[in-house]
Design goal:
The protein has 420 residues and is an alpha/beta fold. The protein folds into two domains: 176 residues, 3-Layer(aba) Sandwich (Rossmann fold); 151 residues, Rossmann fold. It is 46% helix and 16% strand. It contains 14 helices and twelve strands. The protein has a seven-stranded mixed β-sheet. Strands 1-2-4-3-5 form a five-stranded mixed β-sheet, sandwiched between helices. Helix 3 links the parallel strand 3 and strand 4. The protein is globular and about 55 Å long. The structure holds nicotinamide-adenine-dinucleotide (NAD).
């Protein structure tokens, strides 16, 4: 399967094989559970502001259609590949199944650096991407959402492009839209809020005192900044470290997260934020703290640093931050580092996306407190299931979480047959 040839895809496959061995999946079922149902690559030529025409590569991977339409974010990142997109789609499948959502996983995106495009160029490439995807997506086939490098505005351009083609407003084709065009209250904050809700559950379990705890957050975008602010303001945890793609910052007295957020809103990144000391971005992850929240890119916790982590809770806001080799080391340290695995930890985003989709399909409107309340109930249930399974079967939280997801997809595939 050369089109998926990529280290991240290999990592997702290795994780799957661990689960397949643990729950004894028949050899005949393994490949059809693992490989994507459908993958689409498109070429996107765009008129640039300087008069040249630049060509971008876009992808969409629909992992399985067994439980309903596929659902997943859209990533704009310079090195995005089909393999990475497929890995992210596979993780979405297990994530949706773990939360009991009627979706298969999907992921998509464009290999581009959105920070280097003008607003007009960004709109051009976003609209062109959706236009190329129209034959393959739909509210009952595949629903897009935001991910790294994309935001509410890009979702609005996607929705508009699809709607212009249909001739009427189809708000349910994307989630994470602005509230003014059918987005749901609380979607933007949902992933970070979910991360923090689960950190609180873990702290309760471990009898940790939030007021005496510290946190380090890698990545200061949608997930990281919301999580940092909620940890500081709602839970009372002192945020001592933050980072983004430009800089890593540490202040043992605590960083004013709101000030950092306002700085990023003005300047676009944390580079010139001076209220903390600059540290080596790799070292930030292994500095002493109670809660570590990787919420940027994949494969940052590896066999090189897993045994050096000094956190009590590792809350995976990002997708795929921990490699299988690092997992082996963390499994040995299970009583030192409490892992909240990605497919559980960052599921808040897709859960609230599901609410947004349901509201769009039924022309319903829920308030933000209704949305948040429903979100926390699903997360609480998933968290309890994962903890119970891990305890009963003496497996890691990641193995427990993935096994629950994979089993649900497998059961549905057995019930339906080979087609989906
Ligand atoms: P974003 O684009 O809003 O923010 C990403 C942040 O990470 C930025 O601050 C960027 O500067 C920083 N960053 C990039 N490379 C970095 C590096 N090497 N070191 C440190 N920081 C770096 O993206 P996001 O939506 O917050 O997504 C972050 C992660 O969370 C991704 O793994 C994504 O797949 C995952 N996730 C996002 C959502 C969502 O709803 N947005 C849902 C589930 C999971």
């Amino acid at each position: 399967m050369n089109i998926y040839n990529d280290e991240v895809f290999q990592m997702a496959c290795d994780q799957f094989q661990v689960i397949a061995d643990y729950i004894n999946i028949d050899k005949n079922d393994r490949d059809r559970l693992m490989y994507p149902k459908r993958s689409i690559a498109v070429t996107l030529p765009i008129h640039m502001d300087d008069g040249t025409t630049q060509t971008f590569q876009g992808y969409r991977v629909q992992h399985h259609l067994t439980l309903g339409p596929t659902k997943g974010g859209t990533r704009f990142a310079p090195n995005l590949s089909m393999g990475e997109t497929a890995a992210l789609a596979m993780w979405m499948s297990w994530k949706c199944a773990l939360a009991n959502l009627p979706y298969g996983g999907a992921k998509g995106g464009i290999a581009c650096d959105p920070t280097k495009l003008s607003r007009r160029e960004l709109e051009g490439v976003s609209r062109r991407y959706m236009q190329e995807m129209i034959p393959f997506v739909g509210p009952h086939t595949d629903i897009m959402g935001p991910d790294m490098g994309t935001n509410e505005q890009i979702m609005a351009w996607f929705m508009d492009t699809y709607s212009v083609y249909q001739g009427y407003a189809v708000s349910e084709i994307v989630t994470g839209k602005p509230v003014s065009i059918g987005g749901t209250e609380g979607r933007r904050e949902s992933t970070g809020r979910g991360v923090v809700y689960l950190i609180e559950r873990a702290m309760d379990m471990l009898k940790m005192d939030a007021e005496k705890s510290t946190a380090i957050i890698q990545g200061f975008g949608n997930v990281g900044s919301v999580a940092a602010l909620a940890l500081e303001r709602k839970v009372g945890v002192k945020v001592v470290g933050i980072s983004d793609a430009t800089v890593a910052l540490y202040n043992p007295k605590g960083i004013d997260v709101r000030a950092a957020e306002q700085h990023v809103a003005k300047k676009g990144n944390l580079r010139a934020f001076t209220e903390a000391d600059r540290v080596d971005p790799n070292e930030l992850l292994t500095m002493k703290c109670d809660v570590l929240v990787p919420s940027a890119v994949d494969r940052v916790i590896t066999e090189k640093n897993a045994d050096k982590l000094q956190c009590r809770i590792l809350a995976e806001g990002a997708n795929g931050p921990t490699t299988p080799e690092a997992d082996l080391l963390l499994n040995e340290r299970w009583d030192e580092v409490f892992v909240i695995p990605d497919i559980l930890c960052n599921a808040g985003g897709v859960i609230v996306s599901y609410f947004e989709w349901v509201q769009g399909l039924q022309s319903f409107l829920w308030t933000e407190s209704e949305v948040t309340d429903k979100l926390f109930r699903i997360l609480q249930h998933s968290f309890a299931q994962v903890i119970r399974r891990a305890k009963d079967h003496k497996v890691s939280h990641r193995t427990a979480a993935m096994a629950i997801g994979v089993e649900r997809v497998m059961k549905a595939k057995h019930a339906r047959g080979l087609f989906p």
